[in-house]
C-alpha cells in the first residue's frame, strides 16, 4: 500500500479520522477517496495470510454469520427494559389510586404519573442509544489483527478498558478499531490473528478467527 504522506483529516463518507497517508478507500466505511497512486511498494507481509482466509472453505459461512452487538446497543436495550418496567409500575399505581378513590393530586396519583413519564423518557433514550449504536452499516472483511493496545478509564467505583486493534485488510488497507472490554470473563482478541473482522465505523464489533 502506498505510504506517500498526505494531509487528510477525516473521511467524507463516515467522518472518521484518517491516517495521514495516501489511501484509495476509507478503512472504516470503504468510501472511495482516490488519494493513492499506484506504485511498486513491497507487498504487505500479511497479504499471504489474508489470501488464505479468502480461499478458506469456511469463509462463506463466517461471512453470513451475524455477531451480537456491542455494549452500547446492549445498554440501550437495558434502558428500554427499565423504562417499560418503570412506566408499567407507574400505570399500576395510578390505576390503584383510582380504585381507592384518591384525588387527582394525591401522592399515589403523582407517584404513578412520575413513573409513567420517567419510564417513557427512559424508553425514548434507550431507543436513541440503540439507533445510534447501529447507525453505521456492519462491514464483514477478511483481515489480520496486526497490533493491539489498550486504554484504561478509571471511575469512582472501578474502571473500564477499551482495546484498540490495528487491522489489515485485503490490499494492505489498515485502520485502528476500538473494542470496549467485556469484563474479565471475555478475553480480547490477540495480535497476528487471521479471520473476518466485523466492524461498524471505527468500532470492532467482533473478530471471527479462521485458522489458516
3D architecture notes:
This protein is an alpha+beta fold and 212 residues long. The protein has three domains: 1-42, no CATH class; 59-68 and 138-209, OB fold (Dihydrolipoamide Acetyltransferase, E2P) (Beta Barrel), CATH 2.40.50; 73-133. It contains four helices and five strands; from the N terminus they run H-H-H-H-E-E-E-E-E. The protein has helices spanning 47-54, 59-64, 71-99, 107-133, and strands spanning 138-155, 158-169, 174-180, 193-200, 203-209. Strands 3-2-1-4-5 form a five-stranded antiparallel β-sheet. The protein is elongated, with a radius of gyration of 24 Å. It starts with 46 loop residues before the first helix and ends with a strand. Residues 1-6 have low confidence and may be disordered.
* Gap from first CA to last CA: 23 Å
What is the mean predicted local confidence, pLDDT?
Answer: 87
* CA-atom Rg in angstroms: 24 Å
- Overall, the morphology is elongated
Based on secondary structure, the structural category is alpha+beta
H-E order? HHHHEEEEE
| Regions with little confidence, pLDDT below 50 for 5+ residues | 1-6
List the total number of helices.
Answer: 4
Strand order of the largest sheet: 3-2-1-4-5
The fraction of residues assigned to DSSP E strands is 15-25%
Instruction: Report the major sheet.
Output: 5 strands, antiparallel
CATH topology-level fold name of the largest domain: OB fold (Dihydrolipoamide Acetyltransferase, E2P)
Helical coverage, percent range = 25-40%
Per CATH, the architecture of the largest domain is Beta Barrel
What's the CATH class of the largest domain, please?
Mainly Beta
Quickly count the domains.
3
Instruction: Please provide the count of β strands.
Output: 5
Amino acid at each position: 500500500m502506498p505510504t506517500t504522506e498526505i494531509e487528510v483529516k477525516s473521511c467524507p463518507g463516515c467522518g472518521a479520522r484518517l491516517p495521514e497517508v495516501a489511501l484509495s478507500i476509507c478503512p472504516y466505511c470503504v468510501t472511495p477517496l482516490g488519494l493513492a497512486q499506484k506504485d511498486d511498494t513491497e507487498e504487505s507481509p500479511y497479504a499471504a495470510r489474508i489470501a488464505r482466509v479468502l480461499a478458506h472453505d469456511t469463509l462463506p459461512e463466517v461471512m453470513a454469520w451475524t455477531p451480537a452487538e456491542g455494549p452500547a446497543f446492549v445498554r440501550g436495550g437495558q434502558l428500554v427494559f427499565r423504562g417499560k418496567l418503570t412506566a408499567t409500575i407507574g400505570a399500576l399505581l395510578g390505576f390503584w389510586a383510582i380504585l381507592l378513590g384518591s384525588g387527582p393530586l394525591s401522592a399515589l396519583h403523582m407517584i404513578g404519573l412520575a413513573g409513567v413519564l420517567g419510564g417513557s423518557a427512559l424508553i425514548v433514550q434507550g431507543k436513541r442509544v440503540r439507533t445510534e449504536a447501529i447507525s453505521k452499516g456492519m462491514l464483514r472483511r477478511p483481515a489480520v489483527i496486526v497490533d493491539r493496545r489498550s486504554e484504561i478509564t478509571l471511575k469512582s467505583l472501578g474502571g473500564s478498558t477499551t482495546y484498540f486493534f490495528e487491522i489489515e485488510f485485503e490490499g494492505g488497507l489498515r485502520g485502528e478499531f476500538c473494542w470496549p472490554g467485556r469484563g474479565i470473563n471475555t478475553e480480547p482478541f490477540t495480535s497476528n490473528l487471521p479471520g473476518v473482522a466485523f466492524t461498524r465505523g471505527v468500532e470492532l464489533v467482533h473478530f471471527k478467527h479462521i485458522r489458516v
